[in-house]
Amino acid sequence: MPHGQFPARLEPVGPGSYAYVVGIGSWHQSNSGLVTSNGASLVVDTLITPGMTRRMLAEMARAEAAAGHVDVLVNTHGDGDHFWGNQLLASSRIVATTRAARDMRGAATPPQIEALIAAEATDDGRGDFLRNFFAGLDFTDLVPTFPTETFDGSLTVTVGDKTVELIEVGPAHTQGDLMVFVPGDRVLFAGDILFSSGHPAVWSGPFQNWIDVCARITRMEVDAIVPGHGPVTTREKVAEFRSYLEDVREQSTVLHERGLGVDEAARVIDLTRYADWIDGERILINIDAVYRELDGRGDPDRLDIFHRLSAFVAEMRSRAS
Ligand SMILES: [Zn+2]
């Protein structure tokens, strides 16, 4: 199946509120959300391509007439899989944190990323993961479209009769993460603060901040939690996700003390507790994040990480076969 045609479903999570759950939550398969009330609507994140976003918005409008014209779009952070469909809602009020908006404006576009990949790709199979990274995704019509409004801390938005709270919680997954809380529906759209099917990617950290946000979620008055990737989840699962972050930090710290490099540490870290989690290669990103914290370095050059990830995936595959 081409990547651009991931199966997706619109799932009710409250009266007039929905999760749009894409694929199995792997790379590029990010979720969106819809909140409607009394003729008004708010969408949480667009998808990785305009085409996928167009299909999603049509399905939302079929479920709720109020989604035929979206009043507010909220981007949970600055990664492309959450905002490259924004142009479909260019006439809506588009809200993000100041830091997320900065990330979006600074981000390379897919053609730029593909050019960088092509320039450095090797033919020994180690670069296959990266070379095929965007395979099947159609970016031809993409016009990066940015927030019209930014905030720091928190912001309350009204959608019909509903109050929606935007809560800045980064830096964690990225510099500018926010969550969308709808108290009246007891629903939380967590963005990439939560991955419910597999390994997250810790691009920014610090780990402690992310761990604290997880603890905060488990205390919130919510019944449905919509993660950035993977199926709708519960507070119990969030506790499990939190202990993953604690475990990876603890094990990586020991490996760092023993003098192992990141790539070496990724081969020996014990992940048996997470054997059924997808996207296991991301452990490399996450160990690197612990090491960066310990060494006092900031956010990584993502392309450099992706090249190492590509070699790691090739190695994992040859070991598995
Ligand atoms: Zn994402």
TrEMBL record:
Q: Which PANTHER family match?
A: METALLO-BETA-LACTAMASE DOMAIN-CONTAINING
Q: Which residues form the Metallo-beta-lactamase domain?
A: 29-229
* Organism placement in taxonomy: Bacteria, Bacillati, Actinomycetota, Actinomycetes, Pseudonocardiales
What name goes with this protein?
MBL fold metallo-hydrolase
The cross-references to Pfam families, in alphabetical order and at most eight, read: Lactamase_B (PF00753)
**Domain of life where this protein originates:** Bacteria
